[in-house]
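Look over both lines before class:
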Amino acid sequence: MALISNIAIFPTPKPTIPFISSSSCTKTHFSRTPQTPQQDPIFRIKGPSTLSGHITISGSKNSSLALLAATLCCSGSSLLHNVPSVSDVEAMASILSSLGAKVEAFDGKMMVNSDGVGKMQVDLEEMKKIRGGFFVIGPLLARFGEAIVDLPGGCDIGKRPVDLYIRGNGKVRAHAANGRGLIGGRFRLDYPSVGATETLLMAASLADGITVLSNVAKEPEVLDLARFLIDSGASIDGAGSDNLVIRGKRRLHGSECVITPDRIEAGTFMLAAAITRSCISMSPVIPSRLSCLIDKLSEAGCKISQFDRHILEVSAVPRYNGDNLKGFDFRTSPFPGFPTDLQPQTMAFLTTCTSSSLVEESVFDRRMSHVKELQKLGARIRVCGSHALVLGKDEGSSLRGSRLVASDLRGAASLVLAGLTAEGTTEISNIAHIERGYENIDRKLQYLGAEIERSTPVPCLL
């Protein structure tokens, strides 16, 4: 029987705010100097923009989170290169530090030594900040036989159940004899979840015996994690396929790796070129990880060119590509299908194309929150459940600047892209969402010629 009691999950209760009646306050004191509350920064974009030039793509945020968690599997120090400076990575580093790991960040690198990790309970406040914090349950189970975590945070884009993590770690079960170590097992994922695959892969790498995982995720980030673990001494076969066979090791050592370029950031800038009808290049890029988007943008009428191995150029200049780019239909799905993390940005682009486009979101059940904000700009989009009908510019979509509120990471990116092509000024608040996964997106766009600035809104004093 699988033992799953080794993982304790405690949903953090909402803080209660005491009620204070007006009669209990005998005096009210007012300061002579008005107190201005700290205002969160916003992005202010003046459009339409035309972009040109070359940008550098940062290291993958999603790979970084898994690799940082994987350093808990290793003895000694691990050195990660090309680590993006984004808030999600900072939160994961804080989680590792709270467990006792020594984390040093310098010059785009992170050195992690987990020899001092002596806790099995993750700091609950840190855990609430990011979804990727849940990755640590695999290494913690391998080290201690149990783990205490909170429900993970992250974007509210629909159901993101953690049962696959729990049931899978139950199959790679804790050793009943001494409460330490894991025993290999067999487990088939109901859905090829990236997070569950990565968590189980880390746990199985230190389990006693052989673990067979089937119907696993094939995303590039899983391959990056497998390569790091193999370099650290793990025995893993089948990375990049539907099945993984892991022969557990008693000990892994620290290693060094370079984090691969962020395919979602690259895709976002490809769409930035398309939506502004511009021509830009970017590197480093691994085109095979973006084949679905490349095919769709080519279908729309963009010209995609590859130079050397890792330089990609996207041209949508009307003089060379025609005045009208064509809309297209797409459905999100696990890799190698169309990535769900590029769905909102692609939808923004489709509002500027001709004809209507049908978008189906099959990965997350609430990844349509950006639609309401795009509609504020003048986009004509009709949503029915997991489907959205995007009407192009010849069917009524015409983007004009407005005040928008970001509600999740990729949705925020779609609003930035829409603001680049909208007539007039667009202001986007809650930009902390976009800073979770994009390193200096405003500076990179400025370098390409966009009029985008980070500013602090002036509060209204009544």
Notes: The longest helix spans residues 87-99. The longest strand covers residues 42-47. The two ends are 64 Å apart (CA to CA). The chain is about 30% helix and 25% strand.
